Amino acid sequence: MRLLNYMRQWRGLAKEALERTAIVAKFLCLLHVTDTYLCTPTLVYGPSMLPTLNLKGDVLLAEHLSPRLGKVGSGDVVLVRSPVDPRRTLTKRVVGMEGDRVTFFVDPLHTDRCQSAVVPKGHVWIQGDNMYASSDSRHYGPVPYGLIQGKVFFRF
């Protein structure tokens, strides 16, 4: 009789543990789906987007649906996987879409020489708002549209 009560108690504890584990797993799945496909909070810092974003850092909310639906356009601030270092994510402004002719200063600190480029199909031209301290499409050319990870819609 004592063994039977012990087994019932153990089954009850195991059942409760399994239910709680399922709740945690569902929560983690929801968190993953939200972060990957819907919306991500991101901390960004650095001089490339001055004066729009602070040098010391801002928290941005970026949604992931617009890039997937092709709803990113000129003037949008986006999160982009770096074409130079794939482990980094950049925050830049879209300046030109495919087919647009973009005119830019080659090296604004040392010369006032301008250059033009046509953005190829499937690419965007991105630049930081601070042209004196930004590594962007002026340095590595047009960026494939597929590297856009999110469109910023809110800043804290």
Give a quick rundown of the structure.
This protein has 156 residues and is of the alpha+beta class. Helices cover 29% and strands 32% of the residues. The longest helix has 37 residues, at 2-38.
In words, what does this structure look like?
There is one protein chain. The chain is an alpha+beta fold. Helix content is 29%, strand content 32%. The chain contains three helices and nine strands. The protein has helices at 2-38, 65-69, 137-140; strands at residues 39-44, 58-63, 77-81, 89-96, 101-105, 114-118, 123-127, 143-144, 148-155. It has a seven-stranded antiparallel β-sheet. A two-stranded antiparallel ribbon has the order 5-6. The longest helix is centred in the N-terminal third of the chain and has 37 residues, at 2-38. The termini are far apart.
Q: Return the domain count.
A: 1
Distance between the termini: 62 Å
Order of helix and strand elements from N to C terminus: HEEHEEEEEHEE
CATH superfamily: Umud Fragment, subunit A
Number of helices: 3
Biggest sheet details = 7 strands, antiparallel
What is the percentage of strand-forming residues?
Answer: 25-35%
Low-confidence stretches: none
Strand order of the largest sheet: 1-2-9-3-4-7-8
CATH class: Mainly Beta
- Please tell me the overall pLDDT: 92
CATH topology: Umud Fragment, subunit A
Give the strand tally.
9
* Radius of gyration, in angstroms, nearest whole number: 24 Å
Shape: elongated
**Helix-strand category:** alpha+beta
CATH architecture: Ribbon
Percentage of residues assigned to helices: 25-40%
